[in-house]
Specification:
The protein is of the alpha+beta class. It has helices at residues 15-26, 53-60, 71-80; strands spanning 3-11, 31-35, 38-43, 46-50, 64-68, 84-92, 95-101, 107-112. The chain has an 8-stranded mixed β-sheet with strand order 2-3-4-1-5-8-7-6. Strand 2 and strand 3 (38-43) form a beta hairpin. Pfam families: Glyoxalase_6.
Length: 114
Amino acid sequence: MAIESVVVRQRVEDLDAAVPFYEKLTGSTASRFAFAGVDLAGVGPFLLFAGSDEAVQRVAGVAATLVAADLDAAVEAATAAGAEVVMPVQPTPNGRRAVLRHPHGGVFEYVGPS
């Protein structure tokens, strides 16, 4: 299992206002989508999200997103090492995801291709 990259998660009040800053900062074009009532934009290594307090609570408790080429292997290795599955692997608009709590308390979203 290998984590290929880490995506920094950032809540913003106004996604439309925030995206241009992160596009300039990273030299990347935002990829926008919605999930579970939350508006999101992936810009380089950042995942910006906005929405009502109730909706963003579903994503705000996660420290970071860990990207793995083989999501199933990553989840299996993490659980074998003591992580707890908070949300099992499921499809998303951009692939698949799972949420795990590491043995020392951190909660992380793991994502991978479909």
